Structure formats: C-alpha cells, structure tokens
C-alpha cells in the first residue's frame, strides 16, 4: 500500500500534474480527457444535489446559497488537501435537528431566525477547526480511541431517530399530503432497488422529481390538494446575486449547535478511510488537512448564509461505481455548483417543492442516517455482548430519539448533543481501568 507523505508532495509540487489516462482505474493524480472530465464532473453534481438541496430546505435555508457554498467549500477543500483527496463537500444533515431546536423553525418557508443558526454553525466550525489542528499536531489515534465504532454508530443512529418526528410531521398536514409523502417514499425505494444503471444511484433526486410531478398532477390538475404556486418561479430572473445572510452570535445557540463538530470529525474520518481503502493507499497523512478544510468551509458557508458542510458519501459511492478518483472532477463540479448559486430561477424552482414531497424524502433520508449505524457496527464487528458497548448504544439511542434535553442555567443541550456527549463520556467511563477492575 502506498502512503502519501509531505516529502512526496514536495517532490511532485503542491498540486499533482494529473497525467492523462483514459481507461481502467483513474487515481487522484490522474485525469480523463477533458470531455470525459466534464461529463463525470456533472455526474458528481447530480449525485450531491439531492441531499445538498434537501438539507437547507429542512432547516429553512436558501438552497441557492447552500449550493453555491457547497461549491466554494469543495474548492477550499481541494486547495488545502493539495488536490490529493477526492471529495465533494455538501450540506450536512448533522445540523438539522440542532438548527431546528435553536431557531424554533416551523418546517415550512424561510427560517426567520436564520442568523441565529448561522452563528451556531460558525461556532461548530471553530470547534471543528481546533480539533483538526490537534490532529495535525498529534495524529489520529486519539480520535479513534475517543470515537470507536460503537460510539460513532450510536451517535449516527441518534441523529436519525431525533429527526424522525420532523419527517413524520411534514407528511401529516392532511390525508392528501400523507399519501403523496408515502408515494414519494415508495418511488425512492423502487428506484434504489430496480432502476437501471446510473439511475439506481440517484434514488433521492429521482424520487423528489417524481413526487413533485405526482403532486402537480393531483393538486394543480385534479384539485385534490393545495396547488403549487408558480408565481415566484415565473418572476425569478435566470441570473442574479444570491440572498446572502450574515450570522448573529448567541451563546445558547452556539452551545447547542457547536457539538455537531464531533459528528463531522467522525464522519470525515470514516470517509477518508473509505476513499483510502478504495484507492489502495493510505490518506491518513492528509486527514488533519481534510478536517481543517471542512471546518474552514463550514465557517465560510455560515458567514454567508449557507449550511454547514461535510464530505459526501453520495460522491464516494459514485467513485466506487466508476473507479474514477481524479480530483479534477470535483474542482469542475464545484465550479458548476457556484454558477447554479447565481441563478435565482433555480432557487425558486427548488423552493416550489411541496412540503409533502420533502417530508417523503425526509422519511427515507433520516431513516438511512439511523440505519447507517448498523452498517458501522457490522463492518467494524462491534461486540454487543460487551456491556460497555451495549449500554452506551442503548442510552444514546433513547436520549436522541426522546430528545433528552439538559439545562445548565441559560444553556440548553438538545437530544443530539446529549446523545453525542453522553455516548462519548459513558463509553470512556465504562471502559476505564477502574470499571474493568470492578468487573
């Protein structure tokens, strides 16, 4: 296995030379023809678009701004890791529950307390950055000890379960919305299981489009539900500046949202390990940079009205399917996303998606987040016969699903924060030498 090192980087220059290769496995420092690069880059845009657009809608953010900053964040990542780690940075779902809790967002339309949420996301980015600097100085061993698979899986599952009531509420306004939401769920499932070729890898976006058209038919066409209003879409120009928003800083919101940084670290660590396994080379030498790049991208995004960002499993899936790991694809995809951010028409189209369709998509996505924990536990052979693992997971799941809230004077920690810190602290206590001696 080849290990990337700083001396290798110095020998080759800061960025790779991207040698042309048109067949077989394409490594990060290689590239396809420019025509193939454009097509493959667009495929990565499609892969990230579903989640990158849905996440801001669920929090009441402007999707145009989120898409724009996903591109900006990806370019930041590309530069900081010296073009050697293939990744796309999109909207993070880890922020949804805490943003909703911090802002009291009702689930439809623009979030009236968006600046408060942005301040909290900046706080998460700063904490994330501090962690990344420690990693760059000391290595990754302490993170792997602090966040073993049992704890990481518990936190991931708690996020999905904490979000479940949001998804159910979105499809429960009336019977029509419920059936549209369930139809959207069914379409996503059928596409994921039975669709041919590339379509099978795009179930979320295909399901959202199909649900939209279904709603349009039965509501606007047959009058079974509230029609979609296209006035804003018609009035929106094709080109224009996004609606940037500045953050405002409130201690309680920062204290609630900042712990998400721990989740982003675990997520990014897993993604870097996955890409390293696929390419057959260790990327640990770039992990500190990758974490720092993600933290900086999150801060930059939040300073302009965007969501916090993270490396995207969807794009890792595309790489796994195509065996094309060229980092140039992500630079191109980032530029396309930035251009889309300057199209108010695109943003208005996204905002016209009915709540019932978003709810149906959310049921699947939030369930997938929770189910991802099972994959983490299975792949890492977590032993649930071990009481330390079992109790840590049990407590985290209940705290997250029940939204266990802890108050410390003016500060409040919601269910996700309680589950995250509870799992970390409880696991360390239960696996400490003192606990082992007592056993």
Automatic annotation (TrEMBL):
It is found in: Cell membrane. The keyword Iron does not apply. The chain crosses the membrane at residues 65-82, 88-107, 114-140, 146-167, 179-198, 204-223, 244-266, 286-312, 324-342, 348-372, 408-430. Its main location: membrane. It holds the Pfam family Xan_ur_permease. It is a multi-pass membrane protein. PROSITE patterns: XANTH_URACIL_PERMASE (PS01116). The keyword NADP does not apply. It comes from the Bacteria. Belongs to the nucleobase:cation symporter-2 (NCS2) (TC 2.A.40) family. This is Pyrimidine utilization transport protein G. It comes from Bradyrhizobium vignae. The lineage of its organism: Bacteria, Pseudomonadati, Pseudomonadota, Alphaproteobacteria, Hyphomicrobiales.
């Amino acid at each position: 296995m080849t290990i990337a090192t700083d001396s290798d980087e110095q020998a080759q220059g800061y960025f790779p030379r991207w040698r042309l290769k048109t067949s077989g496995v394409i490594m990060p420092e290689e590239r396809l023809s420019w025509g193939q690069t454009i097509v493959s880059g667009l495929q990565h845009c499609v892969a990230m678009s579903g989640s990158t657009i849905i996440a801001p809608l669920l929090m009441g953010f402007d999707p145009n701004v989120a898409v724009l900053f996903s591109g900006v964040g990806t370019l930041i990542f590309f530069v900081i890791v010296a073009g050697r780690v293939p990744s796309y940075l999109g909207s993070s779902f880890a922020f949804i529950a805490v943003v909703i809790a911090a802002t009291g967002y009702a689930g439809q339309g623009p979030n009236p307390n968006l600046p408060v949420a942005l301040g909290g996301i900046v706080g998460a980015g700063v904490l994330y950055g501090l962690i990344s600097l420690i990693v760059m100085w000391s290595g990754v061993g302490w993170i792997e000890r602090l966040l073993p698979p049992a704890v990481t899986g518990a936190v991931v599952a708690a996020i999905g379960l904490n979000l479940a009531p949001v998804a159910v509420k979105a499809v429960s306004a009336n019977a029509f919305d419920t059936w549209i939401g369930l139809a959207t769920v069914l379409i996503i499932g059928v596409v994921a299981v039975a669709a041919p070729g590339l379509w099978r890898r795009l179930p979320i976006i295909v399901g959202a489009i199909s649900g939209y058209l279904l709603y349009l038919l039965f509501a606007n066409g047959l009058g079974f539900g509230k029609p979609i209003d296209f006035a804003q879409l018609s009035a929106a120009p094709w080109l224009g500046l996004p609606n940037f928003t500045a953050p405002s800083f409130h201690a309680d919101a920062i204290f609630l949202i900042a712990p998400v940084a721990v989740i982003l670290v675990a997520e990014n660590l897993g993604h870097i390990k996955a890409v390293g396994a696929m390419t057959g080379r260790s990327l640990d030498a770039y992990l500190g940079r990758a974490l720092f790049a993600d933290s900086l991208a999150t801060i930059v995004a939040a300073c302009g009205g965007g969501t916090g960002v993270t490396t995207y499993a969807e794009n890792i899936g595309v790489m796994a399917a195509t065996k094309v790991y060229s980092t140039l694809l992500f630079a191109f995809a980032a530029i396309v996303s930035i251009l889309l951010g300057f199209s108010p028409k695109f943003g208005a189209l996204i905002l016209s998606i009915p709540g019932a369709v978003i709810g149906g998509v959310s049921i699947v996505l939030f369930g997938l987040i929770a189910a991802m924990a099972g994959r983490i536990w299975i792949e890492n052979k977590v032993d649930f016969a071990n009481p330390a693992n079992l109790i840590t997971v049990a407590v985290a799941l209940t705290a997250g699903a029940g939204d266990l809230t802890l108050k410390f004077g003016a500060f409040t920690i919601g269910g996700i924060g309680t589950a995250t810190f509870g799992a970390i602290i409880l696991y360390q206590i239960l696996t400490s030498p003192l606990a082992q001696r007592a056993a």
